[in-house]
Description:
The protein is of the alpha+beta class. The protein has helices at residues 47-57, 81-98, 106-110, 125-184, 190-200, 203-220, 227-247, 251-271, and strands spanning 7-15, 19-28, 33-38, 61-70, 74-79, 116-120.
Amino acid sequence: MIRSMTGFGSCEIEVPSIGKISVELRSTNHKFLETILHLPDGSLSLEERIKRIIELKIKRGRVACGVNLSGKQSGDASINKALLKKYIEKINSIKNEFKLKDDLALSSLLNLPGVLTLEEKRVSPESIWPKLKIALNVAVDNLTQARIKEGGALQGYLKKQAEELKKRLSGIKEILKKSLKVRLKAFATDEERAVFLKDTDTTEEIDRLGFHINNFKSKIIASGSAGKELDFIAQEMQREANTLAAKTFDVAVSAQVLKIKSLIEKIREQAQNIE
């Protein structure tokens, strides 16, 4: 089944002594595969490993991956005694100079810049990798399932549009068949009829458009990454429809071709969302 390039997947895992590791993946359509990572500080060494896991299962799209660590144990609190001593000396000097009587409050001293430092416990990337790998694989699987589900909806829509194209193309053939008989009777000579038939012959365009429609339908139900190929086929259908519109002599056919071109444009717009 075809897959959409848009979707969301996530996973959260408890890690003893660290807290929780959560992974969120969001993908949108893109010509190629582009992976954007948002990792905790100090985790850049895991970047390539994370990308490899994503790229094993995702072939196209812009994938944003966010990794978050929560509930981490705090490190020690430290007081810069040397700096605190200098603060106190300076403050006492000013108090004596200006005859101030305010007492030094410990809470005020601790709030002075650089006195109190809360050190966050550093987590080694290698220590979290085994759990992160599990969470990442689950999140990627969830993302894949979301893309498959949306791909199923796209598949149904595109099949319906392709059937409509085929139906309208058959209608054009019938209109041309009847209209051609009427138009040929208006010419006085065989030479005039031959020139008219040569200038307005759309058999090749109709046959090619029919071939592209059938090819498109077969690619819709094929497995694998078919988005680029479907977009290319839609371009070819649009090209044949444009030539058909330029060569037709019948107003009713022109009206049907306009509707066909509109359908192809909608098809191509949706095909660009397929992996």
